[in-house]
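User: Could you write out the 3D structure of this protein bound to heme C? I've included everything you need below.
Assistant: Certainly. Input first, then the structure.
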Amino acid sequence: MYIRERRRFVAMSLAAITLGACAETSVRPRQLAGADPARGRDAAERVVCAACHEIPGIAWPRGRMGGSLAGFGGRPLIAGRLPNQPDILVRWVRDAPSLIPGTGMPPQDLSPAEARDVAAFLYTLE
Ligand code: HEC
């Protein structure tokens, strides 16, 4: 009996988290307190995200394998699978395989602060 109650509690908690996630994806613009999109653009240039992505505001290179990031700020999902929310995006840009094992996007040489700046920059790509 106790176990069944507990299971139901876990299921309801998960449902609440999932619904919360859905609600949050519709909030725009997405906020990253203290993050700076201009610094993020520079960090993205330094680690050469554009080797694999076309990125508005970064002229060269214009890699193709990761897809264009034009309009990324308006997309509901990251890599078609993860909710496009600030905390998840920050983790994604630094260490995508920790979220989707086997993804074609390798971990990036960004500090935690730089990852927040890069995420803020990506949210300017409307
Ligand atoms: C070696 C190539 C490579 C590099 C370098 C790279 N990415 Fe990616 N990126 C990918 C691939 C491949 C995907 C698709 C991943 C998937 O679908 O599993 C991806 C997906 C993404 C996505 C999700 C796009 C979408 O349409 O949902 C974002 C955002 C992203 N990358 C940002 C970055 C940023 C920012 C950098 C630099 C810090 C970067 N990437 C560096 C290969 C790369």
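Residues 44, 47, 49, 51-53, 65-67, 69, 72, 75, 78-79, 93, 100, 103-106, 108, 110, 118, 122 surround heme C (CB under 6 Å).
User: Perfect, thank you.
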